[in-house]
Amino acid sequence: MGVLLNVNNIEVIYDDVILVLKGLSLQVEEGRIVCLLGANGAGKTTTLKAISGLLKAEEGEVTDGSIEFMGRRIDGMDPEKIVRLGIFQVMEGRRVFEDMTVEENLIAAAHTQKSKAKMKENMDMVCSYFPRLKERWDGLAGYLSGGEQQMLVIGRALMAKPKLVMLDEPSLGLSPLLVSEIFEIIQRINQREGTTILLVEQNARMALSISQHGYIMENGRIVLDDTTEKLQNNEDVKRFYLGLTDVGAKRSYRDVKHYKRRKRWLT
Q1: How far apart are CA 67 and CA 65, in angstroms?
Q2: Distance of alpha carbon 239 from alpha carbon 198, whole angstroms
Q3: What's this model's pTM, rounded to 2 decimal places?
């Protein structure tokens, strides 16, 4: 499969002075799940917003480099046009339309679908992945549980039939049981629908378990990337991001916080 998304050496500046991304590059191949890992403040969400065209709303701008989707340059393009090309970002924090029903939330995301029959088909597909949404069909989204709201925002993304879904912290605030359920569904969507997924996630262990390739960010740069199998066996990754010692014992927060990366990461 070919490269679907190519982010080439981009810089992002906020308010004309704050440099957030510093020559960041990554690629996402069609049909794969790729994860983007890193501590808070590393620039992960900014990376997604640069791709989806949402930087302008926050006084941000791609000032160097390029972003290509299916061979077409999209940096500087309006967000609506980017959505119509097939990129859908699921924002952090489960941003549902609280005063609308589950059904109305899904309809609102189907504006790229011109056929009512196709919209109905997509709704049935969403309900097959998230049967709990069907149970809450006429209920207001604001009264859904956190897990149900996360299901709804992912379902909204599927309604647009995107080629690439970008998920920003889907596990945030959920119980371990719900996290496992959500990630299992994400993997099924990728496998059954062929939807390419770029996943930003603090839960490194879970993200690596369903991805084929991973990138690790620090301070606006990619410092390491590899297949997820190799990342899971990398001692630096195990110690700093998975919180494990060489023998598999959990490290304390203090140990992880004060861990110093090996110099070869910075080359």
Answers
A1: 7
A2: 24
A3: 0.87
Instruction: Say how far apart CA 47 and CA 245 lie, in whole Å.
Output: 30
In sequence order, what DSSP letters do the residues of 141-182 get, joined into one string?
GGGS-HHHHHHHHHHHHHHT--SEEEEE-TTTT--HHHHHHH
Is the distance from CB of 47 to CB of 36 less than 8 angstroms?
Answer: yes
Strand partners, 59: none
Taking alpha carbons only, the member of 27, 24, 25, 26 closest to residue 4 is 27
User: Is the CB of residue 209 less than 8 Å from the CB of residue 215?
Assistant: no
pLDDT in tens, 130-182: 999 999 999 999 999 989 999 999 999 999 889 999 999 999 888 898 999 99
Q: In this predicted model, what pLDDT tens digit does every residue of 13-72 receive, in sequence order?
A: 999 899 999 999 999 999 999 999 998 889 999 999 999 999 988 899 999 999 999 999
Task: Tell me the mean pLDDT in the region 102-121.
Answer: 83
| Radius of gyration in angstroms for the set of CA atoms belonging to the chain, rounded to a whole number | 19
Domains and CATH numbers, the chain: 3-95+162-233 (3.40.50.300)
245 band by pLDDT with thresholds 50, 70 and 90 = very low
What is the four-CA torsion angle of 131, 136, 138, 139, rounded to 10 degrees? -150
CA neighbor of 198 nearest in space, from 72, 48, 62, 77:
48
Cβ proximity of 144 and 66 under 8 Å: no
With residues binned 3-state (H G I as helix, E B as strand, rest as coil), the percentages for the chain, rounded to 5, are 40, 25, 35
